[in-house]
Each structure stands twice: as C-alpha cells, then as structure tokens.
Amino acid sequence: MTIIAASILAADFARLGAEVEAVDRAGADWIHLDVMDGHFVPNHSFGAAVIRSLRDRTARPFDCHLMIEEPGPWLAAFADAGCQGATVHVEACRHLDRVLQQVRETGMRVGVALNPATPVAAVEEVLDHLDLLLVMTVNPGFGGQSLIPSTLRKVRRLAPVARERGIAIAVDGGITLATAPDALDAGADVLVAGSAIFGAEDYAPAIRSLRAQARA
Ligand code: DX5
Ligand code: ZN
Asked: What is the pLDDT of residues 151-191, one digit of tens each?
C-alpha cells in the first residue's frame, strides 16, 4: 500500500492550518514537515513552534524531515510538538548511530535521509535502527525541482534490503504523476509530494492519482 505524504513546503504559508485540514480531507496519509536551518540546506522554512500550532488541525501522522545540522539537541522539541516520525540526514550527523538512538528514545519513528550524492553504503551500518529510509530524489532545500533519475537506482538497490528488514522507503523531491510510476517501480513505499499536491487545483484528485500510479 502506497503512503502519500503531503509536503506543506508547497502550501500557502499564510493559510497553513487550513491547508493542513484540506490535504487531510483530500486523503493524504501523512503530513510531511520540512524543517530547514539555512546551514545544512541553503533555505529556511519553519520549526517546532509552527508544527505545534498545526497539531490540532489533523489526526494524520506528522512526518518530520529535519534538514538541519546536528539535529540531536532538537529532537525532543519536535516530539513534543506532536511529530510521530523524525527523519535525520546522514550527512548532517557526526555520530549518526547516537542520533538515531536518540530519535528512538523520543518514541518517534526513526528515519534517515540520503542526499542524491550519498551512497547506499552510508546507511549500511545503521539499518538495525531504522523504520524509514528517505531517498532524496532532488538536492534538499527547495520544492518544485525535477527528480534526478540516478536516485531511483539507489531506491532499487535499497529496496530488497529494506523489505527484508521491514523498513519503508520514501522518495522525496520531484514526485509527480510522471515520475511516481518509476519511483514505485523502483521500490518506494512512501511518496512525498509538495508541488504535485498543493500546485493542483483540487487536492483530492491529485492525491488519488498519485496513489494510483503503482503499476499492476
Ligand atoms: C525538499 C523537501 C521536499 C519538498 C518536495 O528539500 O524535502 O519535501 O517539499 O517538494 P516537491 O514535491 O515540490 O519536489
Ligand atoms: Zn522533505
């Protein structure tokens, strides 16, 4: 079953609460929250206070994607704000094993993300800790970019290992009706989509069609 995670980075920030309610009603499974620090990625977005303010707008799980350097000290704040899952970047953690244990201790689902240039080997030694592997299909920092095709080869390589261990694979960046079939074919379980949902006139059919892209 494909999970659709709606990335609110592409939402209307002036109406964020209403946007979260709208994608909930439209059938999104998870709300994907892109936190950026202006260091790990060349952009800022929002932090735990904004996430907390959205928590009572939906019962859907909050899937927090932390694009921040050394996220360890911030994890408790995101758990307190109401996140069910936290995904940290392998490139942003000097002691990745420790940070993943810290995520586990907060009670949140444990995720790790890999940038397009980061090889599969970077997560080999931490697979035991993981619930989710997020393969960045664009360079992180901005919505609306085009999917980098080589990243789907990485998904394909990770898929058997992930399946064997019950780890879900998410793809994030440039996921559209045109790219979703290949991403799903490569082994993605979770489609993170920003512009493909919030850029649509009507969110429900956009989510429905993304979900329907799984090839029989
Ligand atoms: C990018 C973020 C993505 C972003 C995806 O750094 O991690 O979640 O919102 O946006 P689209 O779907 O527009 O490529
Ligand atoms: Zn993201």
From this structure: 999 999 999 999 999 999 999 999 999 999 999 999 999 99
Report the half-sphere exposure of 138 (CA within 13 A, side-chain side).
18
Could you tell which of 172, 195, 203, 207 is best to mutate to test the pocket of ligand 1, judged by most ligand atoms within 8 Å of the CB? 172
Per-residue pLDDT of 56-98, as tens digits, reads: 999 999 999 999 999 999 999 999 999 999 999 999 999 999 9
- Residue 133: count other Cβ atoms within 10 Å of its Cβ: 30
Name the active-site residue from 29, 34, 182, 189. Answer: 34
Residues in contact with 164: Cβ distance below 8 Å, sequence separation at least 6, in sequence order: none
Residues in CB range of 105: below 8 A, 6 or more apart: none
Choosing from 8, 9, 19 the residue with most ligand 1 atoms within 8 A of its CB, the one to mutate for a pocket test is 9
| Consecutive H or E run containing 195 | helix 195-198
Give the tokens for residue 141. Answer: 């920092």
Instruction: State both tokens at 18.
Output: 């209403």
Q: Per-residue DSSP letters for 42-105?
A: S-B---HHHHHHHGGG--SPEEEEEESSS-GGGHHHHHHTT-SEEEEEGGG-TTHHHHHHHHHH
> Hey, what domains does the chain have and what are their CATH numbers?
3-212 (3.20.20.70)
Question: Taking CA 170 as the corner, what is the angle to CA 164 and CA 172, rounded to the nearest 5 degrees?
Answer: 155
Indicate whether residue 17 lines ligand 1 (CB < 6 A): no
